[in-house]
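Write out the bound-state structure for flavin mononucleotide.
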Amino acid sequence: MAGIIFFRTKDLEAIKEFYRSRIGMTTWLVQSECVILKHGNLLLGFCEREETDSQGIITFFYQGCEDVDEMYRKLQPLAIDEPKENETYGIYHFFIKDPDDRLVEFQAFLYPVDPYLAGDELLLTRRSIREFQDTVIPDELLWKLFEICRFAPTTRNCQSYRFIVIRDPKVLRFLAGLRGGSSAPIVRAPMAVAICTDPGITGRPVQDGCIAAYHFTLAARLVGLGTCWIAAMNRVDVKEKLGIPQAHYIATITPLGYPAERPQAPSRKPANELVHFFD
Ligand SMILES: Cc1cc2nc3c(=O)[nH]c(=O)nc-3n(C[C@H](O)[C@H](O)[C@H](O)COP(=O)(O)O)c2cc1C
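---
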C-alpha cells in the first residue's frame, strides 16, 4: 500500500524548484501538468491549477535532531523560528513557509517510532554500526524485530534459523575479545544476537544462516537499531559458551543497540563494473 497527497498550485515551476532544490525531494513521476515528488516514503503531488491549496502542514521527519539542525542551516533565511523541543508531542522541530505560503515543518521524534523507512532508503542507508548507546532496547521492540525476521527466505521454507539473544555482560566481553578489533564492537552494545542454523533441518545451513542474518540487519535498521556483521564466530569455543550444538552453523554474532555513530557510506563500485549481461 502506498499513497500520494495532491495539492493545487498556481505556480508549479516555483514549487518544483523549491521542493527539489531547497528540500531535496526527487521527481517520482510527471503526469501532464502534475508532478509527484518523493522524500523517503512521502509522495507529494502538485498540479498546476487556477487556485492554490495552502491549508494543512507538510511535515518532513528525520532520524535525529542533527538532521533537523542540518535542514535548519540550509533553510535558515526562510525559517519562521529556530529548532526547538516540543514537549507535548515529544518532537524537535522548526517551520518555514513554501512559495504557496504553505506551512512546512522539519522534525525528529524524540522517542522510538514504528518502522517507516521506504525500501530504497532502507537498503541505501543501512550501515555497519560499531558504537552504541547504553539505552536498553525494550522487549516489545525486540519482538517487533524478530517478527520481521520470520520472513527471511530459507531452503524449502524449512525456517532453519535461530536467534540467540546474548545480554550477559561476561559473555559479551568473552565474544568481543575473540578477534581483537574485528569483534570489539560486540561489547559496545547492550546485547548481541547470534544467528544460527540447524543442519538437521536444512541442507543449506550457510545460505539460510547468511540470508537470515542479512534480513536481521535490515529489520534492525527498520526499527531504528544498529548492527554489525562480526565474522568467523562459527567456533567450538563460542558454541560451548552459548550452549549451541557443535553441528549448528553460526552465520554471525552481531552487536545490537541504538546507534551512537552515523558513519558515512563507504565508497561503492559503480553498477556497470559489477553487472554483466549474457545475452
Ligand atoms: C561477511 C562479512 C564479514 C564482516 N566481518 C566484520 C567483522 O568481523 N568486524 C567488523 O567490524 N565488521 C565486519 N563486517 C562489516 C564490513 O566491514 C562492512 O559491511 C563494510 O565495510 C561495508 O560497510 P557498510 O556495512 O557500512 O555498508 C563484515 C561484513 C560482512 C558482509
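---
The first helix runs from residue 12 to 22.
The pocket of flavin mononucleotide is lined by residues 127-128, 130, 182, 185, 228-231, 263, 266 (CB under 6 Å).
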